[in-house]
Design goal:
The chain is an alpha/beta fold. It has one domain (52-229): Protein-Tyrosine Phosphatase, Chain A (Alpha-Beta Complex), CATH 3.90.190. It has eight helices and nine strands. It has helices at 2-8, 19-26, 35-46, 56-59, 117-126, 170-188, 193-201, 211-227; strands spanning 14-15, 29-30, 33-34, 94-97, 106-110, 132-134, 149-150, 161-165, 190-191. The strands form three sheets. Strands 4-5-8-6-7 form a five-stranded mixed β-sheet, with helices on one face. Strands 1-9 form a two-stranded antiparallel sheet. Strands 2-3 form a two-stranded antiparallel ribbon. Strand 2 and strand 3 form a beta hairpin.
């Protein structure tokens, strides 16, 4: 897999000063396809696929009604403390995702189901969560009585967050990728979008499920470079 990835993708980080030119090239066409679309197709081919044995707990009969979508299952799961009672199992459909400096910087989970309300509260308490970022549209759910931040922008985020999204993957994964890419750029002054996505897909296969999201990550980096005076030397 590592050899295939090396042959098909350029996973090495690009110095930030070269990003704008590289992104402009990705938006150009090679024959009848954009190079960005080609890159996404290659990413899909080399992305790791979890072994089914990693999802044994998620597929147990007692846990099936706790998965909002049967094809989005957790690996590297933040386990809950089991009391030994069947009414308090240690399973929840949630995963840890890393940023550049910390492996467990984010917890990404699905919007709670009737069968997982208690488990969600236990997740918040047992993993010392103080901030919940809502990734759903207001029309997608009836908000329970819970202190939360409703996500409408891209604020700088430094501490561990619990990200809540209906399916526990798409928008929350996009948020984590952008955060990790920008954090790395601040520290290393390089851009490693493909590498960050590949790393996060080891934890949640459905991270960046479309070329539109891949392009969005590039657009965020572009705007950050153009608007942040601290990094104005990147464009030189």
């Amino acid at each position: 897999m590592a050899l295939l990835e090396t042959l098909m993708l350029s996973t090495s980080a690009l110095h930030a000063s070269k990003f704008l030119g590289s992104y402009e090239d990705l938006l150009s066409f090679d024959k009848d396809r954009r190079k960005l679309d080609v890159q996404f197709s290659r990413m899909e081919k080399v992305s790791s696929v979890a072994d089914e044995c990693q999802y044994v707990s998620a597929k147990e009969m007692r846990n099936r009604n706790k998965n909002r979508y049967s094809n989005i299952l957790p690996d590297h799961m933040p386990h809950l403390t089991s009391s030994g009672k069947r009414s308090e199992p240690d399973y929840i459909n949630a995963v840890f995702l890393p940023n550049y400096k910390k492996k467990g910087a984010f917890i990404v989970t699905q919007t709670p189901l009737p069968a997982t309300k208690t488990d969600f509260r236990r997740l918040v308490v047992e993993h010392d969560v103080h901030t919940v970022v809502m990734m759903n549209n207001k029309s997608e759910m009836k908000t329970r009585k819970l202190q939360q931040i409703h996500f409408e922008g891209w604020p700088g985020v430094q501490r561990c967050l619990l990200l809540l999204r209906m399916n526990g993957a798409d928008r929350s994964g996009l948020f984590c990728v952008v955060s990790a890419v920008l954090e790395r750029m601040k520290i290393e002054q390089d851009v490693a979008i493909t590498q960050v996505i590949n790393d996060m897909r080891n934890y949640r296969e459905q991270i960046i499920p479309s070329v539109d999201q891949l392009q969005f990550v590039h657009e965020v980096v572009k705007e950050y470079i153009l608007q942040n005076e601290t990094y104005s030397n990147f464009t030189g």
